[in-house]
Amino acid sequence: MQIISRKSFANKRRMVQRSACSGDIDIEGHLEWCTNICKEADIEAYFPLWQESREKLVREFIAEGFTANITVVDTTRLSDNHLGMILSEETIQSISEEGADICGENGEYHSFVSDGPIFSYPIPFSYGEKIVQDQFARLPICE
Q: Radius of gyration (Cα) for the chain, nearest Å?
């Protein structure tokens, strides 16, 4: 994962970027942070999912044919047996049964989208060995 500083983000904007799109749904702190970062970089912040139903969004994402692979789990919120699972109706049922948010909006999990209707072809990848650090379990993505 590449983490860039605000200054670097602003410098990259000068090259090509005119807007930034965020998948945030309804957490005000995320909206504020992304909006401020974009304002500092003089680009437009775009939030197409803002205030949509979490359940509707995740079910639509699956129904449209996207493939999201769960790569990180906060084990204080969701069991690590979800690592490597593809987001599906069965997976969201399992996530829900554990009392976690099915979108992972609160940091329960993170995913890597490897295929979908807007992709020319699926992204080939494999997983490395599971890494556990503090409360996070993750599967590194390898080529």
A: 16
User: Mean pLDDT per segment of 10 residues, for the chain of length 143 residues?
Assistant: 55 67 90 93 91 94 97 97 97 97 94 96 96 97 88
Neighbours of 96 (CB within 10 A): 12
Strands (E), 66-107: 67-74
**Structure tokens of 103?**
């979108």
Q: What is the pLDDT of residue 2?
A: 47
Phi-psi region of 42 (alpha: psi -120 to 50; beta: other; left: phi over 0): left
Distance (Å, whole) CA 58 – CA 23: 12
Q: What is the pLDDT of residue 1?
A: 41
Query: Does an H or E element contain 138, and which?
Result: strand 136-138
DSSP assigned state of 80: G
Q: How many helices (H) and strands (E) does the chain have?
A: 4, 8
| CB contact at 8 A, 21 and 35 | no
